[in-house]
Amino acid sequence: MPQSKRQKSNRNRYHELNLYENKKRKEGYQTIAGVDEAGRGPLAGPVVAAACVIPEGCYLDGIDDSKKLTPKKRSELFLCITEDDAIQYGVAAVDVAVIDRVNILQATILAMLEAVEKLGKRPDYLLVDGMELKQSAIPVEGIIKGDSKSQSIAAASVLAKVWRDRKMMEYHERWPMYGFDRHKGYGTKRHLEALGEHGPCEIHRRSFEPVKSMISS
Predict the structure, then answer these.
(1) Which end of the chain is more exposed for a tag (fewer CB within 10 A), N or C?
(2) Residue 46, burial from CB neighbour count under 10 angstroms (0-12, 13-18, 19+)
(3) CB 39, CB 104: distance < 8 Å
(4) SS3 letters for 148-179?
(5) What's the burial of 121, exposed, middle or buried (CB within 10 Å: 0-12/13-18/19+)?
(6) What digits encode the pLDDT tens for the residues 42-79?
(7) Percent of the chain as helix, strand, coil, to the nearest 5
(8) For the segment 168-215, what is each residue's pLDDT rounded down to a tens digit?
(9) What is the CATH number of the domain that holds 125?
(10) Computed over its alpha carbons, how large is the radius of gyration of the chain?
C-alpha cells in the first residue's frame, strides 16, 4: 500500500477506534481505561484481566481484538504497550481455586477490578468489553465486541491474552501431557483425550464439565 494511502487508512482506523474514548473526553472525563479479559472459557488455568489507558493522540498500529491477531502481532503490540511510558496498564489473574469457589463470572469481575487497581493513576471512566462491571465505583460503560471498537479495550485484550498464553506455556513445562502449549486450556479434542487418559491436574477447573464429572466418578 502506498505510504499516503496507508497514513490515511491509519488515521481513519484511529478515529474509528477512539469514538468511545473521544466521546467521554468531550463529556469531561480525563483518564479513560479500557478493560478486557482472557480465559473465561477454558477448562484449565486462570482467568486474566487487563486495564489500559492510552493517551489521546496515541495510535497502536494494527491494534484490534486480540483473537483476530496472529501470535507474532500480539507479541509486538504487547511490547509496544508495556514499553511505552505514556501508556498505563495493569494485569491481574484469578486462579483456579477462586474460579471454582465463586464461579467464572465473579472471578472475571474480581480480575477486572484488580487490574484497574493496578493502574498507575486511578481512571475516572471505564470502557469494558461485553459487560457493565456494576461492581466498580468508577463510572463504566459496557461495549459489546468492544475489543474491536475501542483502542483501549483492544489493548487490554492483547495484554490479557499474551499474559495468559505465556502463563499456560509455563504450565506446559510442568504438565506437558495435556498440550497446554497448543490449546491454552481450551476443551479441544486433544485436551479432552489427555484428560481421559491422565485425569485432571492442579490447574483444571473442578467446577467445569467434563472435569467435574470426571472427579465425581
Answers:
(1) C
(2) buried
(3) no
(4) HCCHHHHHHHHHHHHHHHHHHHHHHHHCHHHC
(5) exposed
(6) 999 999 999 999 999 999 999 999 999 999 999 999 99
(7) 50, 15, 35
(8) 999 999 999 999 999 999 999 999 999 999 999 999 999 999 999 998
(9) 3.30.420.10
(10) 18
